[in-house]
Amino acid sequence: xxxxxxxxxxxxxxxxxxxxxxxxxxxxxxxxxxxxxxxxxxxxxxxxxxxxxxxxxxxxxxxxxxxxxxxxxxxxxxxxxxxxxxxxxxxxxxxxxxxxxxxxxxxxxxxxxxxxxxxxxxxxxxxxxxxxxxxxxxxxxxxxxxxxxxxxxxxxxxxxxxxxxxxxxxxxxxxxxxxx
Length: 180
Description:
Layout: H1 5-9, H2 23-35, H3 37-45, E1 52-54, H4 57-74, E2 83-91, E3 114-125, E4 131-135, E5 148-150, E6 153-155, E7 166-168
Antiparallel strand pairs: 1-7, 2-3, 3-4, 5-6
Helix pairs in contact: 2-3
C-alpha cells in the first residue's frame, strides 16, 4: 500500500489549521439541521431519519486513489488540483420499492433514510472560460453521468461513486460528539 509522504512527514500542509472549525459552531450547525430540515423530513415522511453518516478512512482513501488513477489513465495531464468530489444528498427507497437496490449491499433498515453519494468532479472551462467543477467519470467517454441510449432504451453507464457508509440511526449514535 502506498503511503502519503505529506501525512507521514508532519509537514505544515499535513498539520495545517485551515480545516478547523470551532466546536460550538459545529454544534450550532448540527442543531440547526436537526431542528429544521430533519424535523420537516421526519414529520412529512413519518420516519426517524438519519442525522449522520460514517465512512472508514481506508474506504475514502481507496475512493480518492481510484479517482486519481482512472483520471490519469484517461488524461495524463490531469492534476490533483483539477479533481474533486461532489457530495449529493440522497435517500434510499421505501421498503416496498427495495427491489431497485438488488445490486447494492444495503440493509433494509436504511429504507427512506438520508445518505450521501460521492461523485468525482473535474475542473474545466465552460463556454465563457469560467473554470467549473463538473461531475465526471473517467470510466465513460463524454458527459459521463448523462443517461445513455442503446437501441432506443435509456441505460445508465457505470460510474465511479461511493455511497454506503454507516448511517446513524440505525447505527448507535452514542459515539458521536455532536449528538443530542
